[in-house]
Amino acid sequence: MEGRLNPPKPRPVAFVTGAARGIGRGIAIELARNGYDIVGNATNYNPAQTGSGLAEVQARVEALGAAFAPAPGDIAELDQHERLLAVALARFQRVDLLVNNAGVAPVIRRDILETTPESYDRVLSVNSRGPFFFAQRVARQMMKQVAVDPTLPAAIIFISSISADTSSPGRVEYCVSKAAMSQMARVFAHRLAEIGINVYEVRPGLIKTDMTEPVQIAYDAKIEKGLIPQKRWGLPEDVGRAVASLARGDFNYSTGMIVEVSGGLNIRRL
Ligand code: NAP
Questions:
Q1: Which residues are catalytic?
Q2: Ligand 1: does its nearest atom lie under 6 Å from the Cβ of 206?
Q3: Does the predicted TM-score (pTM) go above 0.90?
Q4: Residue 124 Cα, ligand 1 centroid: separation in angstroms?
C-alpha cells in the first residue's frame, strides 16, 4: 500500500559535456559508479567504433549497470543546444546534474602580444560562451523539475582550471576563458540557490589527458623538481571522484564552492 503512495525515486541523470576522452570520460564513469545514468556529449559519436570515443565510454558506463545516451554536437554552437537537451529528455525525461566539462586549448600557443582574434574567439566560444548558454538552458529545465518535486536535488558543475587565476602568457585566451567560467559559476550559484539548485566550480591542475599530451615531457621534468607538492600528474579519475562527491550531496550547504584538484599547486610556497 505504502509503495503505491510513494513511487520509487527515478535514477538521477547526469549530462556530461566532452565525455568522450580525458577528464569528461573519467567523470562519466565515476558518476555511473555512483548510480547516475549518463548523457554523454562530444563532437561526434560512432557506435561502430567501440574501442574509443563516446562508444567506448558508453560500454564502460553500461558495464557499471547505468544507462547511457550519446549526445554528439558542438557545445560552442548555440543552435545545437535545444537538440542536445532534447536527447536527455527523450531518453530520461530529466537532467539532475550538468557537468560543463568540454573545453579546448589554443591550437597554437602564442605569446599574449601575438594572440590572434581567431584563436581568442574559438577558445572563448567553446570554453565560456557555449557552457554559459547551455547551463542557462539546463537550469531552466531543472527549475521545472524542482517545481514538481523539490526533494530531488539538482546541481551544475563547471570544470574550469587553475588557469582561472594563474597566469600563462603563452595562452592568455585559455586563462581568460576559465576566469570567465569561474565567474559564471559564482553568479549561477547565487541566482539558483533559492531554487535549490547547487552550483560548483571544479578546478583541475595538471591532468594527464590528450590536452596536456604536447607538454607532458616538459611538465614531467618540472613535477620531478617539485612543481606539484603531491609530486604526480593528476588523473581523470581524480577529477571524477571530486565531481561524484559533489554530486552525492556531500557539500550540500556549500553552493558556489571552488574545489581545486591540483595536488597542492594552489599552495603559495616559499
Ligand atoms: P581532452 O582530453 O582534450 O578532451 C576534451 C573533450 O571535450 C573531448 O571529449 C572533446 O570531444 C570535447 N570537446 C572539445 N570541444 C568540444 C565542443 N566544441 N563541443 C563538444 N565537445 C567538445 O581535454 P581534457 O584534458 O579532458 O579537458 C577537459 C576539460 O578540463 C576542459 O574544459 C579543460 O579545459 C579542463 N582542464 C583540463 C586540464 C588538464 O590538465 N588536462 C586542466 C585543467 C582544466 P571529442 O572527443 O569529440 O574531440
A1: 174
A2: yes
A3: yes
A4: 13
